[in-house]
# Entry
Amino acid sequence: MTLSLDLAVAGDLSVATLAGLAVGIEREWSGHATGPAARFAGARTFLLLGFIGGVAGWLAAGGSVVLGAVVLAGAALLVTAAYVMAARSGPEAVEGTTEVAALAVLALGTAAGLGFPLLTSAAVSVLLLALVEKTRIHSLIARIGEREMAAALQFAVLALVILPLLPNGPYGPFGAVRPRALWLVVLLLSALNFAGYVARRAVGEGRGYGLTGLLGGIVSSTAVTLSFSGLSRQRPEAGGGLAAGVMGACTVLLARVLVLSAVLNAALLDPLMPYLVPPLVVGIGLVTAALVPKSGGESGAEHQPESRNSNPLGLWSALRMALAFQVVLIIMPLANATWGDTGVLTSAAIVGITDMDALTLAMAKLGSSPESLALAAHGIGIGLLASTLLRLGIAMTVGAGPFRRKVGVGLAALAAAVGLGIWLGARTI
# Structure
């Protein structure tokens, strides 16, 4: 057995002790350590539990595994006994958050004693957040309906059951068919759809068209443009807010492109930034300018609510988008082999009009050499310009009144910024 006490060990034990103290302070602050329904532990007891866990880990790390296990088991038995005694006082005392927190402090203190102080610090931060946000967590759970729970379970099946069963590939022409990678695209898009759905449920639909457009842009900026353009004919007085919503959705599209590129091919970010920075700056500026003066009015987002039969995952939409992505993965190398870079850029313009996510996914997979990355970034820029011009055409054709004037100016400015980004990006190739 080799036991030594140096500065590193002292630091680990200090982290374990402070972790226990932090949880104990929260338990006393929340009122669970005082009063007629007080639990067994307060700040001092939790401090000691953290220290005991740290000592148990230190003993185990030094070779005294049995002794460390005995120390840890003794403290765990004390916590268990305290819970049993508290539970006997009545049904209202069965709640055991404090006792479970004590066991967690023992475990995390042991982790610190074993030499993982950063893990302990991070885990205690999450533990404290969960304890402090008790009311909000319960409120969130109360708002979860049957559809949300079913969607979460569906996503679990898609990710944990179907994904491992799919082969990696590649198959087909140019080795472009990769079933597992394609299913990951479905999961990613479904997760984005679900995030947008949860966000809309969390903040409600009545905080303004601008916020609704921002949230709707997570799923489809083109759908937001079409919906708000039609609504502008029914509510011309809300034209400013509707225009802000469209600009918000278009700006979120730029952020989506940035996130997808970073996730799928981080090397693409450097050549892509000149294409995205100008339109992002313009988009954020336009949304801010449109929303700030209207903060006191036009707050009702009275567009058609989501169908109760719709899937929060947007699964069918994700599947269609993934299939479009697969088609693009075949078309892009075919165009490149047949017509060279010109074919890729022409295809990018066509695909960008229909589906920017599919274009981004395809371009992120185009290659890893500096030349292919530069071509991919240029293709995304061309697609963004085509997509922006499409939404400008929709807004000017379907929209009416003040909306058409304001969104026309905004989208024209955004298209000009995308064009500037293409010019800047082309100069870096």
